[in-house]
Amino acid sequence: MDIHESGEMYLETIYVLSQRMSNVRSIDVAAEMGYSKPSVSRGLGILKKRGLATTDPAGNISLTEEGLAQAKKIYERHTILTAIFMELGVDEKTATDDACRIEHYISDTTFKAIKNHLAKYKK
C-alpha cells in the first residue's frame, strides 16, 4: 500500500521514537516533528485507517506489522543514504536533510543497487 511522503515521515518518526522510549504518544511525535498536536492526530488517523498503526486506550501508539515493515524500510533508506553522503564528504546536516528528501522517492530497484554496491566495496 503506497502512502504519501508525510505518512512515511510519521511512520519513521514513530519507529525512531519507539527505539528510544517504551511508550510513544501523539505529543511525542508532535514534539519530534515540530508539528501541532491536531496535525499529528490527523496524520495518525490516516495511518490507523490504512492499518499501519494503532493506539491503546492510554494513547500509546504502536505500529502494526505492516506499518513496522514500512517504517524499517524508510529508516534503512534514510540511514544508508545519510552514511553514503557523509562518506562522500557532505556535512552531517546536509547529508541527513538530503537523505530525508530522497528516501521517499528513490525506487526499490535503485536503492537495492546502492546497497549491493556498498556491500561489494565494504568488504
Proportion of beta-strand residues: under 5%
The ordered H/E elements are HHHEEHHH
Taking the alpha carbons of the first and last residues, their distance comes to 35 Å
Give the CATH architecture of the largest domain: Orthogonal Bundle
Per DSSP, the total helix count is 6
Q: Please, could you describe this protein's structure?
A:
This protein is mainly alpha-helical and 123 residues long. It folds into 2 domains: 5-69, Arc Repressor Mutant, subunit A, CATH 1.10.10.10; 73-122, Diphtheria Toxin Repressor, domain 2 (Orthogonal Bundle), CATH 1.10.60. The chain is 70% helix and 5% strand. The chain has helices spanning 5-20, 26-33, 37-49, 65-87, 92-102, 108-122, and strands spanning 53-55, 61-63. A two-stranded antiparallel ribbon has the order 1-2. Helix 1 (5-20) packs across helix 3 (37-49), helix 1 (5-20) crosses helix 4 (65-87) and helix 4 (65-87) crosses helix 5 (92-102). The longest helix is centred in the middle third of the chain and has 23 residues, at 65-87. The chain starts with a helix and ends with a helix. 22% of the residues are buried.
Briefly summarize what is shown.
By secondary structure, the chain is mainly alpha-helical.
